[in-house]
Amino acid sequence: MRYELVVFDNDGVLVDSEPISNTILAGYLTELGHPTSYEDSLRDYMGAAVHRVHDLIGERTGQRLPLDFDKTLHARVFAAFARELEAVAGIADVLKQLVEDKVPYCVASSGSHERIRVGHRTTGLDAWFRDENIFSAEDVGRGKPAPDLFLHAAARMGVAPERCVVVEDSRLGVQAAIAAGMDVYGFTAMTPKERLAGARGYFDDMGELLGLLE
Q: Name one Pfam family in it (predicted).
Protein backbone atom coordinates (compact mmCIF):
# COMPACT_ATOMS: atom_id res chain seq x y z
CA MET A 1 0.00 0.00 0.00
CA ARG A 2 1.35 3.41 -0.93
CA TYR A 3 -0.07 5.12 2.17
CA GLU A 4 1.24 4.92 5.73
CA LEU A 5 -2.04 5.90 7.42
CA VAL A 6 -5.71 5.54 6.45
CA VAL A 7 -7.91 8.18 8.10
CA PHE A 8 -11.60 7.35 8.20
CA ASP A 9 -14.43 9.76 8.69
CA ASN A 10 -16.96 8.23 11.07
CA ASP A 11 -20.55 9.17 10.24
CA GLY A 12 -21.52 7.68 6.89
CA VAL A 13 -18.17 5.92 6.40
CA LEU A 14 -17.85 3.65 9.44
CA VAL A 15 -21.40 3.84 10.79
CA ASP A 16 -24.53 4.40 8.70
CA SER A 17 -25.64 7.32 10.86
CA GLU A 18 -26.23 10.18 8.43
CA PRO A 19 -29.88 9.34 7.56
CA ILE A 20 -30.70 8.97 11.25
CA SER A 21 -28.93 12.04 12.57
CA ASN A 22 -29.96 14.40 9.76
CA THR A 23 -33.61 13.36 10.01
CA ILE A 24 -33.51 14.16 13.73
CA LEU A 25 -31.59 17.41 13.27
CA ALA A 26 -33.97 18.66 10.58
CA GLY A 27 -36.98 17.80 12.72
CA TYR A 28 -35.56 19.45 15.83
CA LEU A 29 -34.63 22.68 14.02
CA THR A 30 -38.09 22.80 12.45
CA GLU A 31 -39.64 22.25 15.87
CA LEU A 32 -37.66 25.25 17.16
CA GLY A 33 -39.01 27.51 14.40
CA HIS A 34 -36.20 27.10 11.85
CA PRO A 35 -37.83 25.12 9.01
CA THR A 36 -35.28 22.60 7.76
CA SER A 37 -35.81 19.67 5.43
CA TYR A 38 -33.78 16.49 5.48
CA GLU A 39 -32.13 17.62 2.24
CA ASP A 40 -31.32 21.01 3.80
CA SER A 41 -29.65 19.26 6.71
CA LEU A 42 -27.53 17.07 4.45
CA ARG A 43 -26.49 20.08 2.37
CA ASP A 44 -25.63 22.39 5.25
CA TYR A 45 -24.51 20.17 8.12
CA MET A 46 -23.37 16.77 6.88
CA GLY A 47 -19.79 16.23 7.99
CA ALA A 48 -19.77 19.26 10.28
CA ALA A 49 -19.39 19.69 14.02
CA VAL A 50 -22.49 20.84 15.88
CA HIS A 51 -21.10 24.36 16.28
CA ARG A 52 -21.78 24.84 12.55
CA VAL A 53 -25.51 24.46 13.26
CA HIS A 54 -25.32 27.26 15.83
CA ASP A 55 -23.22 29.40 13.48
CA LEU A 56 -25.49 29.07 10.44
CA ILE A 57 -28.73 29.58 12.37
CA GLY A 58 -27.22 32.67 13.98
CA GLU A 59 -26.04 34.06 10.64
CA ARG A 60 -29.35 33.42 8.90
CA THR A 61 -31.80 34.45 11.61
CA GLY A 62 -29.91 36.48 14.18
CA GLN A 63 -31.28 34.09 16.80
CA ARG A 64 -29.54 31.74 19.18
CA LEU A 65 -30.47 28.13 19.64
CA PRO A 66 -31.48 27.03 23.17
CA LEU A 67 -28.71 26.51 25.69
CA ASP A 68 -29.62 22.83 25.93
CA PHE A 69 -29.74 22.34 22.15
CA ASP A 70 -26.66 20.11 21.98
CA LYS A 71 -27.72 18.00 24.94
CA THR A 72 -31.23 17.47 23.58
CA LEU A 73 -30.01 16.75 20.05
CA HIS A 74 -27.49 14.19 21.25
CA ALA A 75 -30.03 12.47 23.50
CA ARG A 76 -32.43 12.08 20.59
CA VAL A 77 -29.71 10.88 18.22
CA PHE A 78 -28.27 8.37 20.69
CA ALA A 79 -31.73 6.96 21.42
CA ALA A 80 -32.27 6.45 17.69
CA PHE A 81 -28.80 4.91 17.34
CA ALA A 82 -29.73 2.31 19.95
CA ARG A 83 -32.78 1.33 17.87
CA GLU A 84 -31.50 1.62 14.32
CA LEU A 85 -27.77 2.17 13.84
CA GLU A 86 -25.71 -0.30 11.81
CA ALA A 87 -22.14 -0.37 10.59
CA VAL A 88 -21.59 0.59 6.96
CA ALA A 89 -21.75 -2.59 4.90
CA GLY A 90 -18.30 -4.03 4.26
CA ILE A 91 -16.35 -1.78 6.63
CA ALA A 92 -15.44 -4.58 9.06
CA ASP A 93 -13.81 -6.50 6.19
CA VAL A 94 -11.79 -3.41 5.26
CA LEU A 95 -10.58 -2.93 8.83
CA LYS A 96 -9.71 -6.62 9.15
CA GLN A 97 -7.60 -6.46 6.00
CA LEU A 98 -5.78 -3.33 7.16
CA VAL A 99 -4.91 -5.08 10.41
CA GLU A 100 -3.69 -8.16 8.56
CA ASP A 101 -1.59 -5.97 6.25
CA LYS A 102 -0.28 -3.99 9.26
CA VAL A 103 -1.49 -0.69 7.79
CA PRO A 104 -2.20 1.89 10.53
CA TYR A 105 -5.61 3.53 10.51
CA CYS A 106 -7.66 5.90 12.65
CA VAL A 107 -10.95 7.78 12.74
CA ALA A 108 -11.13 11.58 12.58
CA SER A 109 -14.68 12.82 13.04
CA SER A 110 -16.45 16.14 13.47
CA GLY A 111 -18.64 14.33 16.00
CA SER A 112 -17.88 14.29 19.70
CA HIS A 113 -15.91 11.51 21.35
CA GLU A 114 -19.13 10.38 23.01
CA ARG A 115 -20.94 10.17 19.68
CA ILE A 116 -18.11 8.18 18.10
CA ARG A 117 -17.97 5.71 20.96
CA VAL A 118 -21.74 5.29 21.21
CA GLY A 119 -21.88 4.48 17.51
CA HIS A 120 -18.98 2.05 17.70
CA ARG A 121 -20.34 0.21 20.74
CA THR A 122 -23.77 -0.07 19.13
CA THR A 123 -22.40 -1.54 15.90
CA GLY A 124 -19.53 -3.60 17.29
CA LEU A 125 -16.86 -1.43 15.66
CA ASP A 126 -15.37 -0.72 19.09
CA ALA A 127 -13.45 -3.96 18.54
CA TRP A 128 -11.42 -2.15 15.87
CA PHE A 129 -10.75 1.20 17.54
CA ARG A 130 -8.89 2.18 20.71
CA ASP A 131 -8.51 5.56 22.38
CA GLU A 132 -5.17 6.02 20.61
CA ASN A 133 -6.73 6.02 17.14
CA ILE A 134 -9.95 7.96 17.77
CA PHE A 135 -9.85 11.69 17.07
CA SER A 136 -12.66 14.24 17.32
CA ALA A 137 -13.10 17.90 16.41
CA GLU A 138 -13.37 18.35 20.18
CA ASP A 139 -9.61 17.76 20.28
CA VAL A 140 -8.80 20.79 18.13
CA GLY A 141 -11.70 23.21 18.57
CA ARG A 142 -12.52 23.57 14.87
CA GLY A 143 -14.36 21.04 12.75
CA LYS A 144 -14.20 20.41 9.03
CA PRO A 145 -13.66 22.07 6.53
CA ALA A 146 -10.71 23.34 8.60
CA PRO A 147 -7.73 20.96 8.22
CA ASP A 148 -6.92 21.02 11.95
CA LEU A 149 -8.50 17.68 12.82
CA PHE A 150 -6.78 15.71 10.07
CA LEU A 151 -3.42 17.34 10.82
CA HIS A 152 -3.87 16.56 14.51
CA ALA A 153 -4.67 12.91 13.76
CA ALA A 154 -1.63 12.56 11.49
CA ALA A 155 0.67 14.14 14.07
CA ARG A 156 -0.61 11.91 16.87
CA MET A 157 -0.23 8.84 14.67
CA GLY A 158 3.29 9.92 13.67
CA VAL A 159 2.70 10.11 9.92
CA ALA A 160 3.41 13.04 7.57
CA PRO A 161 0.23 14.46 5.95
CA GLU A 162 1.40 13.63 2.44
CA ARG A 163 1.63 9.95 3.42
CA CYS A 164 -1.99 9.86 4.63
CA VAL A 165 -5.18 9.07 2.78
CA VAL A 166 -8.63 10.14 3.98
CA VAL A 167 -11.91 8.31 3.35
CA GLU A 168 -14.77 10.81 3.35
CA ASP A 169 -18.41 11.11 2.33
CA SER A 170 -19.03 14.82 2.87
CA ARG A 171 -18.12 18.00 0.99
CA LEU A 172 -16.71 19.59 4.15
CA GLY A 173 -14.60 16.53 4.86
CA VAL A 174 -13.10 16.44 1.37
CA GLN A 175 -12.27 20.13 1.65
CA ALA A 176 -10.59 19.54 5.01
CA ALA A 177 -8.50 16.67 3.68
CA ILE A 178 -7.33 18.68 0.68
CA ALA A 179 -6.47 21.63 2.94
CA ALA A 180 -4.43 19.24 5.09
CA GLY A 181 -2.41 18.15 2.06
CA MET A 182 -3.78 14.61 2.10
CA ASP A 183 -5.16 12.42 -0.66
CA VAL A 184 -8.88 11.73 -0.22
CA TYR A 185 -11.30 9.20 -1.67
CA GLY A 186 -14.97 10.05 -1.79
CA PHE A 187 -17.53 7.49 -0.66
CA THR A 188 -20.61 8.13 -2.80
CA ALA A 189 -23.14 5.75 -1.27
CA MET A 190 -25.11 8.80 -0.09
CA THR A 191 -23.35 11.78 -1.60
CA PRO A 192 -23.14 12.41 -5.36
CA LYS A 193 -19.52 12.63 -6.46
CA GLU A 194 -20.01 16.13 -7.84
CA ARG A 195 -20.46 17.27 -4.24
CA LEU A 196 -17.12 15.67 -3.37
CA ALA A 197 -15.11 17.58 -5.98
CA GLY A 198 -11.37 17.37 -5.54
CA ALA A 199 -11.22 13.78 -4.34
CA ARG A 200 -8.61 11.54 -5.93
CA GLY A 201 -11.27 8.95 -6.74
CA TYR A 202 -14.76 7.79 -5.88
CA PHE A 203 -16.47 4.55 -4.85
CA ASP A 204 -19.98 3.58 -3.78
CA ASP A 205 -19.27 0.12 -2.35
CA MET A 206 -16.90 -0.30 0.60
CA GLY A 207 -15.59 -3.46 -1.04
CA GLU A 208 -13.91 -1.27 -3.66
CA LEU A 209 -11.84 0.77 -1.20
CA LEU A 210 -8.84 -1.48 -0.71
CA GLY A 211 -8.28 -1.73 -4.42
CA LEU A 212 -8.23 2.05 -4.69
CA LEU A 213 -5.68 2.36 -1.90
CA GLU A 214 -3.22 -0.07 -3.50
A: Hydrolase
